[in-house]
Amino acid sequence: MELLAPAGDAAAALAALNSGADAVYLGLNEFSARESAENFDFMQLRTTVRLAHLYGAKVYLCLNTLVKDSETQRFFRTARLAWDAGVDAILIQDLFLGKRLKELYPEMTLHLSTQAGTCNLYGACLAAEYGFSRVVLARETPLQDIRAISSVIETEAFVQGALCSCFSGQCYLSSFAGNNSGNRGRCKQPCRKKYTIDRKGYERPAYALSLSDLRVGERVKELIGAGVSSLKIEGRMRRPEYVAAAVSYYRALLDGEDAARAQSALARTFNRGDYTQGLAFGQKGDLLSRDVQGHIGERVGRLELRGGRYFCRGRAGRGDGFKILRDRAEVGGAVCTEAGEDGFFLVSRDPLRAGDEVRITTDLALAKELLSARRGRKIVLSASFMSGELPVVRCGAWSFAGEAPLARAERAPLTRAEIETCFCRTDGLPFSVQFSEVVTQGAFLPRAALNAFRRAAYASLCDALDPPRTPLPERQPEEPEIAPSAPLPCAYITGEPTQDGEGICIYKPDDYTALPDRLPARCYLYLPAFFPQADIAAVLPHLSRFEGIYCEGYYGVMLARACGVALFAGTGMNLCNRFAAAGVIAAGAKYYALSKEISSREQQAIGGAGAYVLAAGAVKVMDLCYCPFERTCTRCDRRKVYTLRDEAGRCFPLRRYQTAGGCRFEVYNCDQLDCTAGDLGVLRDESVPALSGRVSRGHSERSML
């Protein structure tokens, strides 16, 4: 079982390795879905790969942003150089671009990023067919689907860290709100802001879309039982002490040790919302963090007034930081100024009260302790230092011999203790040295020469543990040819399957468990990106009545093929370059919609026969796979559309629909769209009414990416 840790910088990578991680994942300065992390240049990447391999760990590189057409050649070159640097796998979001990379360099090991939204067996089978070795599961994937997917391809599942409000790869809120694409690693997290919803009990401004951090905890055993190969900790934006705490916690769980102290350390280093176990095990009441945003820390007690000063019982150190809550809401912060045996005193600029909840968010002593941990790779050496023979040390299949036979000692021959003492000095290398057989007889070797021999031996061992790769040849992929565009009928995404005439009807039902009997001609069934196996089973008997499926996820390729229906690849496939456009055509798509984040000019450059552009109507910016009303089903008014209002007064339609798995929700942009499609087909979304009455020019002048 692999424990996989985030590394936003070299310090976090070292903290992860010293705490027991089996692998780390990191990003370069471009093509990383965490652009705001410090990230790595190629020299830092090579150094980190070397270090990880000496620890016996792996390094996975995230090239998991959407790649524009003008960037594809640089993307291929970056992937090649990273592979030459020794990374063990490369994570990619664009399935079709990844397929082309694998064809170009079969030697590479590719993992499909969680941004690709793999949540059912169809998507997993397509990834395997296209040469990916592993899929990073969508965080929302149900346990039964995880078990099925793990039977066809290696899987990686998140167990700890931040949860996106939106289904991965389908969030465009930051993009449309401020031209900062989450699919390019630039998300400004508007989902973490305050909103109101026009439903009784939800009118008060709250963090209505913000989810608590994930902590699977003991339920990792269920993921392991379902066949998951790698347990992933989220957090490339988090500090090294958080990484150390998270790795230590799951290392303790996996090794069968008491994890209580490690759990406390984890809560103190970062904890949004006191945690949730996520959606893999079904939505629980603790999923949302409506009242507090950011790090909430660990509860240590209640505030008291002692001699006119703020006091709390418990243990803390001078300089430790605290967050103060009242009625679950944050009312201020505080710092420890004095600590005694029975408690500690706090100062705050905020007006606090006796009885307020005190939560520690910065524990200075703990951070120092976490970062001081040292873990060495166990190596078992055997050695032979015999007079008249070459000195030799061995470790498994590796061996290293000196250049000249050892001289015979005249007075004090070399002893086993001297050899072991020498080789226990590892010169900073992450080795924990043990010895099996050490043989010496009558040999003499000056101390300086013995030390030089040790250094040369360890240098050889390092090369054996991290052998250099033969550089891959530079290969330029041929630009795919795309047939020129031709006139296309307008396509309508609608909740009422009554569109007749020349247009293509894309029916988006309010209830996928109750599809209508009568359908118009040229009708496609709209399928969202998150559609686990139970949802697919509910619609399978009805697909033959549709001309095809309009699918927002890659899984639609295999589903359409299996059911013998046409495929209309939706905007959710995020087709941003000609390799992706040509790839979806080669995969059998009759029609395809280009990314709604690229400019009109970029759409025209890569679009061809069968290409559509979302040019009119509503713009879906989020797919919510959970209930923002916290499953209060008995009190739910079950309206089709609610209004989500931000602090600036902008109104976003919040659409509810039903699947076999229960209610799900979509968020639409506050403005509707009215722009040109040029020579490409017009896709119009009529799913929800306009709330503002305003329209946007869309991407005719600029690219969201």
How would you explain this protein's 3D organization?
The protein is 24% helix and 27% strand. The model is unreliable at 699-704 (pLDDT under 50). The chain has 705 residues and is of the alpha/beta class. The chain folds into four domains: 2-163 and 212-269, TIM Barrel (Alpha-Beta Barrel); 298-371, Thrombin, subunit H (Beta Barrel); 378-465, no CATH class; 491-696. β26 (548-551), α15 (555-563) and β27 form a beta-alpha-beta unit.
Keywords:
705 residues, alpha/beta, TIM Barrel, Thrombin, subunit H, 4 domains, eight-stranded parallel beta barrel, eight-stranded parallel barrel, 17 helices, 36 strands, globular, disordered C terminus
Q: Which structural class is indicated by helix and strand composition?
A: alpha/beta
Which homologous superfamily in CATH is the superfamily of the largest domain?
A: Aldolase class I
Q: What is Rg? A: 29 Å
Question: What is the mean pLDDT?
Answer: 94
Overall helicity: 10-25%
Number of strands: 36
Q: Which CATH class of the largest domain applies here?
A: Alpha Beta
Report the biggest beta sheet as strand number plus sense, adding barrel if it closes.
8 strands, parallel, barrel
Q: How many H/I helical runs?
A: 17
- Residues in β-strands, percent: 25-35%
Using the alpha-carbon principal axes, give the shape: globular
User: What is the CATH fold-level name of the largest domain?
Assistant: TIM Barrel
Low-pLDDT stretches: 699-704
The structural domain count equals: 4
Strand order of the largest sheet: 1-2-3-4-5-6-7-10
Specify the CATH architecture of the largest domain: Alpha-Beta Barrel
Please report the distance between the alpha carbons of the first and last residues.
37 Å
